[in-house]
Design a protein that fits this description.
The structure holds 2 protein chains of 2 kinds. By secondary structure, chain A is mainly alpha-helical. In chain A, 85% of the residues lie in helices and 0% in strands. Chain A is built from 9 helices and no strands. Chain B is elongated. Classes of the chains: A mainly alpha, B alpha/beta.
Amino acid sequence: MIRPFKAIFKAIGSESVSFLRGLGKMGIFLFDTIVYFFAPPYKHNLIVRQIWFLGNKSLTVIIMTGAFAGMVLSLQLFYTLRKFGAVSLLGPGVALSLIRELGPVFTAIMVTGRGGSALTAEIGIMRISEQIDAIHVMALNPFNYVVLPNFIAAVICLPLLTAIFDVVGIYGGYLVGVKLLGVSSGVYFAQMRQIVGMENINLGIYKSLAFAVIVTWVCCYKGYSVGSDSTGFGARAVSKATTDAVVSSSVLILVGDYIIGSFFI
Amino acid sequence: MKKFDMEVMVGIFLVIGLVCLAYLSVKVGSFQFVGESGYTLTAEFDKTGGLKTGAPVEIAGVEIGRVKEVTLDNKNYRAKVLLIVRPPVKIQEDAIASIKTKGLLGEKYVQISPGASANMLAGGGKIRDTESAVDIEELISKYAFGEVK
């Protein structure tokens, strides 16, 4: 009589405990990263390599998505604003949505998809082929080699990629709004300065810094902890970790976007 | 050679990123590295209607400066507005400063109507003639309560 219920409660209990344990591990991971951040030596050449990997190589995808995000935004805003005869707000509208929301979020999601997944796979394979253990055995700190360079590189890269995304997007919107739909070019830029303001640009930068931490945190943690759960120590564990990393960092980016946004309304 | 290449590429990426950031801050965010250059004028208004720091100062619709500060004069309870005007533009001492709204719902700006006097205002000078912001609500209530003849 009691037995089936017991099984159900046991399942619920073990799930929640392992979930909490995972959260705790992630928290400790972030804490460790921050502690090691203040403990040199930094691996300069690794940081440069990761900036190249996360920054330079993301440039194409960022420019493409930025241009098209701006163009779509311009098209849709034009369609809406024309109904109110407020086409003069097209430029500020495009700039504001890009700088406040779309720029940081899109950039972070693109970097997750392009760079974050690769980070997880790379670190995961280092874990299952016992390279991380080898670093440990040599009495070196694996964080300095596999986690911290990614962290620093992402914190440097993401705000810059976001700025590139914003500028490309604003000019993409300009292309559609001015060249295609016939808004005058002075009107597009005229009110941007007054309406956008420095505080919105700061908000975009704060967001992209927060997303940089989220992306590298989740992706490095997932790769670093491959094999610590029931999926075992094989190729499948790496593939699961990679999928998990992309899914959870995308979700966390949007959650974080809402939370940061609600502080700065 | 390979490593050298990568560092150059990273450098180029960082420079492009920083240039974009600077462009956004200066062109779109109106961020100023060294403060606006120009001389300052003051003007007192009865009502600013929500004039903000950084609002444009215009003559004939052309921007000639910005609002630097809006404070309350504690003695006569009027709003004291500090304007920064770019040097080539000279303003007569009998010019009129008025607070206007861009469009029906746009933001507030200061419009200066040039005077006819031969005496120009120097830095720190005061524009004596001012017109406050038009309060649409007040106009409507005047109309509604029949004060308008």
